[in-house]
Structures are given as structure tokens and as C-alpha cells.
Design goal:
Radius of gyration: 43 Å
Number of helices: 5
Number of strands: 4
CATH architecture of the domain at 110-196: 2-Layer Sandwich
Helix content: 55-70%
CATH class of the domain at 110-196: Alpha Beta
CATH superfamily of the domain at 110-196: ATP synthase, E subunit, C-terminal
Strand order of the largest sheet: 2-1-3-4
Distance between the termini: 69 Å
Length: 197
């Protein structure tokens, strides 16, 4: 079989019906050609064409349904991955915050006055208040009470309690208890992040 090699790639090709080409050639030379007349050229019936077209449409419709179902599955997987990553990111952020806060508490790098005042704001009453503090935080709070005798911070009774961590406090009132613990604050932040998802 002979082969043809081209110097450049073929950009476009046109298929020519050989029978039609011979008829056109005969017409252009105005000579008598013994070819089949144009009516003898076989064309597929239009009914066959419409069936083929319908078959291709059905096949394309099936392919489109498949592509759409794949796209929906990928979108679901994407959303699931995002939700999973959000939860993991929130968990990691809380763990990082926990380590930072525990490190700062261990070094005494916190404002115990602000912590106690915030807990007092949440207390249901200001009468007969007892504030339980870590024994290492107690001297600083007593000093603050002496320096500010007219502030709300000066009124409560301060008590040392080794079960309370550094940078934490427990406010006891006749109407209830207010806890200001690092772990409880982190749990509240975790719950808020989970609700935000």
C-alpha cells in the first residue's frame, strides 16, 4: 500500500464521494461517460438517519446524566471534606490556644485582676461573695484589694484553694457559683465554633 508523507501536519480534510466526483468530472468534460446516473447513487433513507440521530441523542443524554451524577458526587465529597477540615481546623486551633494559655498560666503571664473582675460581672449577686484562687495568685489579689479599697474588687473575701489553677478563679455567692476556668472557656469556644459550622 502506498503511503504519503507530508512536511506539515494536516489541518483539515474533506471526504469526497468517489461516485459524485466521477459524475462531476464527466459533466465538466461534456463527454459521454458510462457512469451510473446520479439517481443511482445510494443515499441512506431519511428514516435511518433520524433513527441514528435519535440513538445518538439518547446516548448523549445518558452520558450527560452520568456526568451530572459524577459532578453531584464530587460536589458532595467536596462539601464533606470542607466540613471535616473545618472541624479539624477548629480542634487544632483550640489545642493551640490551650497550650498557649497553659504556658502563660505556668509563667504567671496573665492579668488576674481582669479574670476576677470578669467573673464578678457574671455573679448573680455582690453580697457575701467568696473568691477562691490559686495560692500563687492570692497575694497579688490581696495587694490589689489594699491598693483599691473603693473598687468592687475590694469587697469579696479571698480564699486560697489548690484545686484552682493559676489564672483561674471560682466565685461563690449565696445564689450560685461562677467558674472562670481555662478549660471551660475553651469548651465554650469549641461549642461556638461547632454551632457556626
Amino acid at each position: 500500500m502506498p503511503t504519503i508523507q507530508f512536511m506539515q501536519p494536516i489541518v483539515m480534510a474533506r471526504i469526497i464521494d468517489a461516485a459524485q466526483l466521477r459524475i462531476d468530472a464527466c459533466d465538466s468534460r461534456n463527454s459521454d461517460c458510462e457512469l451510473n446516473p446520479p439517481s443511482a447513487i445510494r443515499h441512506p433513507p431519511s428514516d435511518d438517519l433520524s433513527k441514528e440521530l435519535q440513538r445518538q441523542k439518547n446516548e448523549l443524554g445518558q452520558l450527560l446524566k452520568t456526568v451530572n451524577s459524577i459532578a453531584a458526587a464530587l460536589n458532595g465529597l467536596h462539601q464533606e471534606t470542607l466540613a471535616s477540615n473545618r472541624a479539624e481546623i477548629a480542634r487544632l486551633a483550640i489545642e493551640i490556644a490551650r497550650k498557649i494559655l497553659m504556658c502563660k498560666a505556668g509563667k504567671g503571664d496573665y492579668d488576674i485582676q481582669a479574670i476576677v473582675e470578669e467573673a464578678l460581672k457574671r455573679a448573680p449577686t455582690r453580697q457575701k461573695v467568696v473568691i477562691r484562687l490559686n495560692p500563687e495568685d492570692l497575694p497579688r489579689c490581696q495587694q490589689l484589694q489594699r491598693e483599691n479599697p473603693d473598687s468592687p474588687f475590694a469587697e469579696p473575701q479571698l480564699t486560697a484553694d489548690w484545686s484552682i489553677g493559676r489564672g483561674e478563679c471560682l466565685v461563690e455567692t449565696p445564689k450560685g457559683i461562677v467558674k472562670s476556668f481555662i478549660e471551660e472557656h475553651l469548651e465554650q469556644i469549641t461549642e461556638a465554633l461547632q454551632k457556626a459550622e
